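From the shared-data thread, chain only:
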Amino acid sequence: MSQKKKDKKMNKLAIFSGTAHPKLTKKICDSLKVKQAKAQVGRFSDGEVRVKIEENVRGKDVFVVQPTCSPVNENLMELLIMLDALRRASAYRITAVIPYFGYARQDRKDQPRVPITAKLVANLLTGAGANRVLTMDLHAGQVQGFFDIPLDNLYAIEVFLSYFKKKEFNDLVIVSPDVGGIKMARAYAKKFGASLAIVDKRRNSPEATEVMHILGEVKDKNVIMVDDIVATGSSLVEAAKALNKAGAKKIHAAITHGILSANAVEKITNSAIDSLVITDSIPLPTSKKSRKIKVASAGNLFAEAIKRTHFEKSISVLFDSIGR
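Structure, as tokens:
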């Protein structure tokens, strides 16, 4: 494609932001060298979401960046209303860019009389006007099957690989903090060229866990624990405690989505973890900053995925090599 055609095609691209994470949207726009599209997103006096698209989007390829992080319901409702406004403004195609997809943890009926909220949110997004969804490290892969529209699930592995390569660790072991994360940890171990270990644990309650033993060799090794979500931090801290007891040298964690609810930051700061690296899929407020918590940006990853989607190119090159 000639440069002239590329420039003309880029003029049909519009990237909007909700109020959940404007900094990430700016990083994406800066990476793509495009101006962020204008929209008013606020509240009426009674708290209802008020949205007005402030430019012509008729026939444009539109992307709305909005993680459904805390306050989850506010941000989700804001996204739905923005999608509806863009559909009614005759956008050619609308992609919901959801770096962190909330409500994904309830993805099945694992006990009587509980909802499948991941499916409910999928229906809401489709009904509101989304033609595609772009997200990163879904909590459960089967959530993709809840959508009747295309969904692209990016992986943060390349973001963490770039970050940790600068550290030049030797004797590296990738650790899954629980049995459920083995597949993810194996992919990381392959990418990092490292060995693999697993923390076997028993869950005492939804908020508390008891570590049992470690499968694999971690003595005198540098450890990177990998997972998709860190919420209360209990599992991570208990796993780090067990790894420290087993003789690990340095204990790091690479977690895609830093929810960091309740007193998670305090737990992590006072734990055996040397550093916790999260992506900026969720904004990290000043109140949750710690000397141990580092942020690696996924802005370039999302920018590349948006660019490839807009130009109708495959984005599988962004995650094919992961081998999950």
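The CA atoms of residues 13 and 221 lie 47 Å apart.
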